[in-house]
Amino acid sequence: MNILKFFTAGSVDDGKSTLIGRLLYDTGSILADQLEALQQSNRKNDDGTIDLAILTDGLRAEREQGITIDVAYKYFQTEKRKFIIADTPGHIQYTRNMVTGASTANLAIILVDARNGVVEQTIRHSYLVSLLGVSHVVICINKMDMEGYSEEVFNTITENYKKMAAKLNLQDITFIPVSALKGDNIVHTSEHMPWYKGTSLLDFLETVEVTVNQDLHYARMPVQWVIRPQTEALHDYRGYAGRILSGAFKVNDKVTVLPSGSSSVIDRIEIFEQTPEEATAGQSVTLHLKDNIDISRGDVLVNSSYLPQRSQLIEADLCWMDNKPMDDSITYFLQHNSKLSKCKIREILHKVNINTLEKEETHEFRLNDIGRVVIKTADELAFDLYTENKANGSAILIDGRTNLTVGALMFRAIVE
Amino acid sequence: MSKYNLDYLDELEAEAIHILREVAGQFEKPALLFSGGKDSITLVRLAEKAFRPGKFPFPLVHIDTGHNFQETITYRDEMVERLGEKLIVGYVQESIDSGKVIEQKGKNASRNSLQTITLLDTIAQHGFDACIGGARRDEEKARAKERIFSVRDEFGQWDPKRQRPELWNIYNGRIHKGENVRVFPISNWTELDVWNYIRREKMSLPSIYFAHHRDCITRNGQLMAASPFLNMDEADIVTHRKVRFRTVGDMSCTAAVESEADQIDDIIDEISASKISERGARLDDKVSEAAMEDRKKGGYF
């Protein structure tokens, strides 16, 4: 069994929380004591049924205001798969929270209200999904019950969406007509829409492919920790511990250490007490090399025949996440996996108007702004472009004054 | 081209190990909070996988309410002996004796909430800048909002509105002096994942997790172990039951469930079929709708 991570996007009243609540409720993921708490709650639908949306609003302030404040994570499981849902709010801080949710997701569900069709929000959410490179997109056309379960409405919205999406780089788009409130096509196929020949949302989530499909040569492992017991029995033990970001490492593979550029050969791979011949992306391992070279946390081990980019000047897409606007006169910290480097924003190339998708000239970056910048780092980074290797093509910005995470970076090009 | 597909337990394990190694790499003085429950036992197993054959780069820290199940303490001491790692114990009794906290009175008295003060004192005394805990987001609705690296201010407080966004698998552990970070490596695990992992790894557990005979009383509809730590009176009728515990906390606030499950396979079957959540057996969560949120804001784990 494997795990599918997804998130939902849509504006405040599109029914995101209801959709998640419906998925949990109809798959029997809500237990008796939680259900009892729901039934005692004052929030009910107009017809007196339980308001499933409150399942996802975990904080007091959220229940008071009836809105979602921050990303919450929900878990459920069927016989076929485990699911992790990043429940991201649809209101003002949508960009910051959506980028957060999308950064680890395999799939995005974008809700469209059947009564309103494709609106500005839909464009915005689709743009973010395309920017973050989420592999699969499901467009749930919700509230079909309020449009008489009309096939024509569904077809019109689908066509409009496809026209809009042609401008974006979306990989795999699926359209499903649903009513989260009534439960149509969420877990069970709807009897109200016999014209729809596709699967229910859950069927789709259970069967969509999530395996990492990547070139073996992209072997990258940032060193997180050097294991050196320095005991008599293990005098010469020196293991480089980390999680493989991408690709695969095999015993006897030639590897290069960056930034030093020294190279060696993999002598042994350890995963606790096991010593496999090969380890692949996602695994936390300890690597041993044939030669004693100087390697410490922040260095990255890569396959010598396929080296990453190396530069101190990088063009990147930036999403600004802090209330305090970006200040290009100060030095920030850039964290790229286990490597921390000082950096400056050298130049703002443009900002994207995420309602119209047009590029605009700007001198400032405020909360939720997205655009392209040139970053100058104090140390040389060993990275890949985000489009080729998300894990080694992304970084965060930290404000050293507040220690807050203020920006998300996706590396797009080398500046020559 | 090649395809990789890790099994879900392998993926959760690899993620948790990655988080533990980030703690080791980013902090000066981390600690692993150990309660003797299945979640912190899982953390210890993950720490072995992250750092062996080296030593753990942190001590284990137990906040002892003095109202523990003896089986848990025995298990703790045997485990520390086997691991050869350092254990630091913070005693709630000492906080009571020094007048920093006042013991609750009445029938439902519990030392559970007093732990927070002892924990914060222990953190301050040893200067810990990161505390690794076994909380999971599936446990409770306020926990669903937790980040994996969760910054607490100098008063140990959690502010849900000032959380750092957590992007990709990059964790920002930078803090100001006096602050500390609570780190939750098994955030993405569910109760069932923990049990499946315990089975797969053939880990031992304190015996109270398995069905056994015990004197119990019924309190607020829940089955409690009869013990000197409960304020009992004539109205409390002691009955002998076959029970087990789903979570391990203080004896005064952790309820038992009637069960025949004395093997791990039976426990997994029982949990899979259960209609009550794990936290349904914790009286401390039932005080109000936001009980957990309020305690977390105050510095509780």
- β-strand number of chain B: 11
Q: Which regions of chain A contain 5 or more consecutive residues with pLDDT less than 50?
A: none
- What is the helical fraction of chain B, as a range of percent? 25-40%
CATH class of the largest domain in chain A: Alpha Beta
In round numbers, the mean pLDDT of chain A is 90
Helix content bin of chain A:
10-25%
Q: What is the overall shape of chain B?
A: globular
Gyration radius from CA atoms of chain B, angstroms: 19 Å
CATH superfamily of the largest domain in chain A: P-loop containing nucleotide triphosphate hydrolases
Helical stretch tally of chain A: 7
Main β-sheet of chain A, in a few words?
A: 7 strands, antiparallel
Total strands of chain A: the figure is 23
> What are the secondary-structure elements of chain B, in order, as H or E?
EHEHEHEHHEEEHEEEEHH
Task: Sketch the major β-sheet of chain B.
Answer: 6 strands, mixed
Q: CATH H-level name of the largest domain in chain B... which superfamily?
A: HUPs
Oligomer: heterodimer
SSE class of chain A: alpha+beta
Protein name (chain B): Sulfate adenylyltransferase subunit 2
Keywords (chain B): ATP-binding, Nucleotide-binding, Nucleotidyltransferase, Transferase
Family (chain B): Belongs to the PAPS reductase family. CysD subfamily.
Enzyme class (chain B): transferase
Label this structure with key terms.
heterodimer, A: 416 residues, alpha+beta, Rossmann fold, Elongation Factor Tu (Ef-tu), domain 3, 3 domains, seven-stranded antiparallel β-sheet, six-stranded mixed β-sheet, 7 helices, B: 301 residues, alpha/beta, 2 domains, four-stranded antiparallel beta barrel, 8 helices, 17% strand, globular, nucleotidyltransferase (chain A), sulfate adenylyltransferase (chain A), GTPase activity (chain A), nucleotide-binding (chain A)
Give an overview in words.
The complex is a heterodimer of chains A (416) and B (301). Chain A has three domains: 3-207, Rossmann fold (3-Layer(aba) Sandwich), CATH 3.40.50; 216-303, Elongation Factor Tu (Ef-tu), domain 3, CATH 2.40.30; 309-414, Translation factors (Elongation Factor Tu (Ef-tu), domain 3). Chain A starts with a strand and ends with a strand. Chain A is 17% helix and 35% strand. By secondary structure, chain A is α+β, with helices and mostly antiparallel strands. With 301 residues, chain B is of the alpha/beta class. Chain B has two domains: 8-194 and 289-298, HUPs (Rossmann fold), CATH 3.40.50.620; 206-273, no CATH class. Chain B contains eight helices and eleven strands. Chain B has helices spanning 8-26, 38-51, 70-83, 92-97, 115-126, 191-201, 264-273, 291-297; strands spanning 2-4, 30-33, 60-64, 87-91, 130-132, 149-152, 180-183, 212-219, 222-225, 239-245, 255-258. In chain B, a hairpin with a 2-residue loop joins strand 8 (212-219) and strand 9. At the A-B interface, helix 2, helix 3, strand 2, helix 4 and strand 7 of A face strand 1, helix 1 and helix 2 of B. Strand 7 (212-214) of chain A pairs antiparallel with strand 1 of chain B.
